[in-house]
Amino acid sequence: MEEQEATVRNINPNPASPSDEAGPPDASSIWARMAWTHLDAVRRRAPLVQCITNLVSMDIAANVLLASGASPAMIHSINEIQDFTPKADALYINIGTLSAEWVPAMQAAAKAALEANRPWVLDPVAVSASSYRMEACLELVKLRPTVIRGNASEILALSSACRISGAKASHLVNLTGLN
Asked: Which CATH number applies to 47-176?
C-alpha cells in the first residue's frame, strides 16, 4: 500500500511541468488518492456481491468485481434469494436482458437487500425501450436502490416516469436537476 500511495502522490496530469513543484495538490491527484483508498478498502474487505445481471455482461461484471477484490455471486434464481441475499454485502441488478422469469427474483432480492440494510444498485438498461421495462424498473425504484447507475437518457426517462407515476424518487429528481 505504501508503494501505491507514493505512486498516487507522484501523479502529474501535466507532463510538461515537473511533479515536484511546490503548491497544493491538484484535483487529479486528490481523486487518484481517493480512488486508491476506496479500492484498497474493497480489497481488504473482499465483499460478497450478488449480481442479477444480463446475460451479455454477466462475465464482465464478475471479472470487474474479481479484479477489484470483491467476490461476485451470479445468483438469479428466486429459489435462492431468501437464503442468499441477506448474507451478501451488496446487490447489483441489471435489467439488460429482462425476462419475466427474472423480474420476481429481482424484486425479491431488492426487498431482501433493503430489509437487511445492504446497499444495492439498479442499472435500468434501456428503460424507455418498452413499457414492460419501465414498469419493472418503477417497481424496483419503490424498493429504494442505493444507487441508480445509468446513462443520461435512462436516468431522465426513469425520473420523468417516477414523477408521472407518483413513485418516490426524489434522489432521481435531484440527480437530474429537475424539480
From this structure: 3.40.1190.20
